[in-house]
Amino acid sequence: MSLKLLLSLTVLSTPLFAALGKHEVQVTKTPTSQTQAPKVSGRPVKDIKAPKKVDKKKVVESAKKAPSKEPVDKKKEGDVKSSEASTPGDASKSVTDTAALAPTRSTSQSNLPIPRFVCIKAGEANMHVGPGNTYPVEWKYVRKFLPVEVIAEFEHWRQVRDAQGTVGWLHKSLLSSKRFVMVQNKVVNLYTGADLESPVIATVEPGVVAKVSECFQSLCKIDIQGVKGWVKREFLWGVYPDEAKFS
Predict the structure, then answer these.
(1) Quick one: pLDDT at residue 31?
(2) Which of the 8 DSSP states describes residue 40?
(3) CA 230 distance to own-chain centroid
């Protein structure tokens, strides 16, 4: 009887262990991503925020005044056709259209390239609708070192365009050839070197204005109130794709 009992237990045990084997967990290995996160420097990463104050204010009062015609010396006019317009709005539009049609940079009355980037050196700067103080003030800039692009010239006046696309005229005494840029579109990393694998020392918000000193390939070196590093050129407004050194 003991031998028969032993054989019965053996027969019953075989399907029992086989059933348990169906519930065993199998581990499948998947290849890990080859993309590496940017290295972080040993010191804490700074978070550089944009100022909450606005860059420019809309001027409504002076825009309601009837403009006076600014005297124009046609001999000094060059390619700028603002003297041919009957109103300051027409003058501004005429110069804008002329600048927009130019495929490459040209030489201006000041023997400087058109277009070119400069910055507003004054704490407050009035933007007129035409090249003269008698034209209404449409905008007042209240942020120093804001980058703007010179797209036309007329005597002592410069037609400029800002990062938001606003176009108007500023007196040349309000501008400086020092180069500054504005971070745009997204929060960007500030790297210690001209290499995306170099350590990140700060993150910079859109709207931050910084001094630019040089560019190397897709990166530019900037200085934000003493915090220096490299950021992607594509997120900076105020530099051209072919520029490398700045005064």
Answers:
(1) 44
(2) B
(3) 14
pLDDT, tens only, 221-246: 999 999 999 999 999 999 999 999 99
Could you tell me if 55 and 130 are in contact, meaning their C-beta atoms sit under 8 angstroms apart? no
Q: Which residues pair with 47 in a beta bridge?
A: 203
Q: What is the DSSP letter of 240?
A: -
Q: Are 134 and 97 in contact (CB under 8 A)?
A: no
Measured between alpha carbons, how far is 35 from 171 in angstroms, rounded to an integer?
A: 50
Q: What digits encode the pLDDT tens for the residues 162-216?
A: 999 999 999 999 999 999 999 999 999 999 999 999 999 999 999 999 999 999 9
Give the rounded distance of the alpha carbon of 100 from its chain centre.
20
Distance, CA of 72 to CA of 122 (rounded, Å): 26
Q: Give me 112's structure tokens.
A: 């400087």
Tokens of 45: 């990463």
Diameter of the chain measured on Cα atoms: 129
Torsion of Cα atoms, 92 then 126 then 61 then 55, to 10°:
100
**Dihedral sign of CA atoms 44, 190, 184, 112 in order:** positive
As given in the structure block, the two tokens for residue 101 are: 């049609």
What pTM was estimated for this model as a whole? Answer: 0.68
How does DSSP classify residue 245?
B
The C-alpha R_g of the chain, in whole angstroms, comes to 32
User: Residue 224 carries which side chain, given as an amino acid letter?
Assistant: I
Cα angle vertex 80, ends 165, 176, to 5°? 55
